[in-house]
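Researcher: Next sequence.
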Amino acid sequence: MFDSLNLTAKALDASMLRYQQLTNNIANIDTVGYKRMDVAFENILAAELDKSGASGIDLDNINPQIYYDNASTTMRLDGNNVDIDIEMSELSKEKIRYDTLIQKATSQVQRYQNIFQQIQ
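Model: Next structure:
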């Protein structure tokens, strides 16, 4: 009954983890040798949906994973590969994603509250 709310909670956790990782990247902009890190969630969710379909999704198989972003080939001379413009852009997108997920979770909880009130 609460699967959609539980999935939204997983997405919120992943979004917060990604936001924290992006701020960590920004904090290490001047750290020699620092390598950018990111969080994989959407592709893990998509793989689970492809495997099980929306009705058979197993939330235990959907966990965000932090990884080093080696795809970024533009490295500075000090070995750091953080681009402040990209990080700030990604941070803004993640904030919007998180705010949207909060709104979705709030509406889901309100819907359940309305159902429970009608039952009483």
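Model: The beta strands are 37-40, 65-68. The longest strand covers residues 37-40.
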